[in-house]
Write a structure and sequence with these properties.
This protein is α/β, with parallel strands linked by helices and about 575 residues long. Helices cover about 40% and strands about 20% of the residues. The chain has 21 helices and 20 strands. The strands form 3 sheets. Strands 10, 11, 12, 13, 14, 15, 16, 17, 18, 19 and 20 form an 11-stranded mixed β-sheet that branches. The longest helix has 25 residues. The radius of gyration is 26 Å and the shape is elongated.
Length: about 575
């Protein structure tokens, strides 16, 4: 039954691999040899945890070691996916069951429920678990600690289970609440740390061609906004900023009415077109912060690609059907909100756009996991990111394996375990609430995007100077073929970087000494904005006056809009005026 197949099936639909992958066979062999009551399998997203778990379930049911199956999933949509996968494996599961519903049809061997559903009525689930020899599969077990009711409910409901199989791709949490049925042992520093029975990390899966390599494409740019105090601020995304300014710059970039998002979505669509040359059904996913933004991004994508995008909102009854339909067709784009991404399991997703202010290590790992599922050898995942320090750090550390640590200090903002939002509760409630409610009044005034660099296998690749959206330099990275081996990706990135450097050097050497290089309008405006921002920063160090106040004063004296959307004459006037201030103060 467990014949060892290739490391990657040709096209293994969710939970239906025709033969077990190497890690699945090894984990199954280990499980059956030990026959433990509790077993924690940690496998990177896209590796095939579902296939492994259902194979275990089939073995235990076949050997009469268990009579019934309960699957606990984070979301309603994942319940349906589990039921569909179980049906293909010959195990009929009822995904409509809720705690307290009583009996189920005799056609079913088990039920699928959510953690929230268990928390509502754990006693009813306990009675059902006690009635039969039950195997409980706890999918994404880290969610069992999302709230006291969830953790306590899971422990109460499934304490009498004959077997418990816990699964996760992200076994770390920000809090110090123990996860039910997970073993903890002292680490090197004596602090209790979760212990997995079997671990299969991203780096191992990549070497086995089970998952795709990920090419991250980072975009920065000039932003301007008005704070709740009425100050107008201009800053560059990607430059060293305070935590608050970084957050405000990111929110400005993600504003669908600015220039940054349309530029990045256009670049992502170009990348998707390149990938589809080699993978015709490849799809893209935009991860948005809220419903309004999601709808606005969908409109932009329609203008860019000429094709309507599928919009998935977790509080819509038809969301599961939309995801299933998108998974089966060959349309280009889907836009989803926040934690919906964890319930999105579409193997053809190959291009992603990070368009959410949510930026925790847990959410990042789950979201990127939507793009790494390999179907055929050589497929590459591409994820577009804002140049925000913590996101770039997560991308560089994609291969890092972490465990859940108890008693860790969580107040340090630099700690990867710093407390994330209660994302699941928000997703299962409503996503209509605006970020304004959390962060106060805010007005994005203008934004522009520029390509920053590519990040692959922890290494950074880019070109010297500013790389403008739509330029040949940007296409050096957007045009990477959609089918390459991991080492070929690195070699091609290095080659294109070196070729462009040689071309630039030759152009400089061949240019006559008495000629001035032509500068495009975009380049000229960029130079003027950098000069103005530099002078404003110098004025701040000299006077202590906030950057926003200085920019507002210059606008008041010289006229014109915010610096991010001002023309060359307006910027030049402000540069001259602040220089006059400096001379006047010195004299």
């Amino acid at each position: 039954m467990t014949s060892l197949g290739p490391a990657w099936p040709e096209r293994a639909a969710w939970g239906t691999a025709p033969s077990l992958r190497a890690w699945q066979s090894a984990a199954l062999t280990d499980y059956l040899a030990r026959n433990p009551r509790d077993f924690l399998a940690v496998a990177t997203p896209g590796a095939g945890k579902t296939t492994f778990a259902l194979t275990v379930a089939a073995e235990l049911l076949g050997r009469r070691l268990v009579d019934r199956l309960v699957i606990v999933a984070p979301t309603e949509h994942l319940k349906l996916q589990w039921a569909e996968a179980a049906a293909r494996a010959g195990i009929p599961i009822d995904p409509t069951y809720s705690a307290g519903s009583g009996k189920i049809a005799s056609d079913y061997v088990g039920v699928a429920v959510t953690y929230a559903g268990v928390g509502v009525n754990p006693l009813a689930m306990r009675i059902r678990t006690e009635r039969f020899k039950t195997l409980v599969i706890l999918d994404e077990i880290h969610h069992a600690g999302d709230s006291l009711s969830w953790g306590e409910g899971v422990r109460e409901a499934f304490e009498p289970a004959a077997r418990r199989l816990a699964l996760t791709g992200t076994p770390f949490r920000s809090d110090i609440n123990p996860i039910p049925f997970v073993t903890y042992a002292p680490g090197e520093d004596g602090v209790p740390t979760s212990v997995a029975d079997y671990t299969y990390g991203y780096s191992e899966a990549l070497a086995d061609h089970v998952v795709r390599p990920v090419l991250f494409l980072a975009y920065s740019g000039q932003m301007s906004w008005r704070t709740r105090a009425g100050d107008e601020v201009a800053a560059s995304l990607g430059e060293p900023l305070t935590k608050d300014m970084t957050s405000q710059a990111l929110r400005t970039a993600l504003d669908p009415n600015g220039s940054w998002m349309p530029s990045v979505l256009a670049a992502a669509d170009k990348r998707l077109s390149e990938v589809r040359r080699h993978v015709p059904d490849a799809g893209g996913l935009v991860i948005a912060s809220d419903q309004d933004s999601a709808r606005a991004y969908a409109k932009l994508l329609k203008q860019i690609s000429g094709e309507s995008a599928t919009v998935v909102l977790s509080d819509e009854k038809a969301s599961s059907k939309k995801i299933s339909a998108f998974s089966e067709n060959d349309s280009r784009w889907m836009v989803a909100v926040r934690m919906v991404s964890e319930g999105v399991d579409v193997p053809r997703l190959a291009v992603g756009v990070w368009a959410t202010t949510t930026s925790t290590p847990l959410f990042f790992a789950q979201a990127v996991g939507r793009f790494v599922r390999a179907r055929k050898r050589g497929e590459i995942a591409s994820v577009f990111l804002p140049s925000v320090p913590n996101l770039l750090s997560f991308a560089a550390e994609l291969e890092a394996q972490r465990d859940h640590v108890l008693k860790r200090k969580v107040s340090d903002d630099g700690d990867i375990f710093a407390a994330e939002e209660d994302l699941m509760n928000q997703a299962n409630a409503s996503e209509a609430a605006s970020e304004e409610l959390e962060l106060g009044p805010f007005e994005a005034l203008g934004s522009e995007a520029r390509f920053d660099h590519a990040l692959y296998d922890g290494a950074q690749f880019g070109h010297e100077g500013e790389v403008h959206v739509g330029s040949d330099e940007e296409m050096d990275f957007l045009g990477i073929p959609g089918l390459l081996e991991p080492d070929q990706v690195s070699a091609l990135l290095q080659q294109r970087q070196a070729d462009r450097r040689r071309t630039r050097t030759s152009a400089v050497e061949e240019r006559p000494a008495d000629t001035v290089a032509e500068v495009t309008t975009h380049e000229h405006l960029g130079l003027l904005r950098r000069e103005l921002n530099s002078l404003v920063a110098s004025w701040h160090h000299r006077t202590g006056q906030a950057h926003g106040i200085t920019h507002a004063a210059l606008r008041k004296e010289c006229g014109g809009p915010a610096a991010a959307v001002a023309n060359a004459d307006q910027l030049q006037k402000r540069i001259e005026r602040i220089r006059e201030w400096a001379v006047r103060k010195s004299s």
